[in-house]
Amino acid sequence: MTPTQIAALIVAGAFVLLVLLLAVPLIKLGKTLDEASTAIKKAQENSDPIFTGANTTITHVNTQLERVDGITSNAKTISGNVSALSSLFTATLGGPLVKTAAFSYGVSKALKARRKRKQEPTGRHFRRKNKGVRK
Questions:
Q1: Which of 27, 39, 94, 111 is 20 to 30 A from 46, comparing alpha carbons?
Q2: How many CB atoms within 10 Å of residue 94?
Q3: Where is region (Disordered) located (predicted)?
Q4: Sign of CA dihedral 64, 66, 69, 73
Q5: CA–CA separation, 122 vs 130, rounded Å?
Q6: Cα separation of 123 and 135, whole Å?
Q7: Buried residues in 106-129 as b, exposed as e (16+ CB within 10 A)
């Protein structure tokens, strides 16, 4: 054998050794990819019931939201009616009630002032609070 053939054999052996060393991680990577694809298939099979349940839940939530929307629209209508009724009450009875209250307040103030004037001494027309007592 010539030195060139020996060198070629050494290079070929090193190449085979390198291929064998690289084959081990490639085989492990292949097993990992097989496990990942198996996990993805299982997840896909198990996700169908989850999506069905989520779809049912969303349908129920939408139904409840429609009911709540109806309730809030009714509450809005009722509050508008109450506002209109209170405005009507204020316009119809508010003015006369305020006038009546002002009149009764004025009358009571006038009566109190008149009583107070009658009780004050004004010369010979003095009235005593206690009529039965004389000094």
A1: 27
A2: 13
A3: 114-135
A4: negative
A5: 17
A6: 18
A7: eeeeeeeeeeeeeeeeeeeeeeee
* SS3 per-residue string spanning the chain: CCHHHHHHHHHHHHHHHHHHHHHHHHHHHHHHHHHHHHHHHHHHHHHHHHHHHHHHHHHHHHHHHHHHHHHHHHHHHHHHHHHHHHHHHHHHHHHHHHHHHHHHHHHHHHHHHHHHHHHCCCCCCCCCCCCCCCC
Please tell me whether the overall predicted TM-score, pTM, comes out greater than 0.85 for this model: no
What's the mean pLDDT in 71-87? 92
Calculate the alpha carbon distances from 21 to 13, 14, 30, 41 in Å. 12, 10, 15, 31
Question: Length of the chain in residues, anyone?
Answer: 135
Measured between alpha carbons, how far is 125 from 135 in angstroms, rounded to an integer?
17
**pLDDT digits over 105-135, tens only?**
999 999 998 888 888 766 555 555 555 555 4
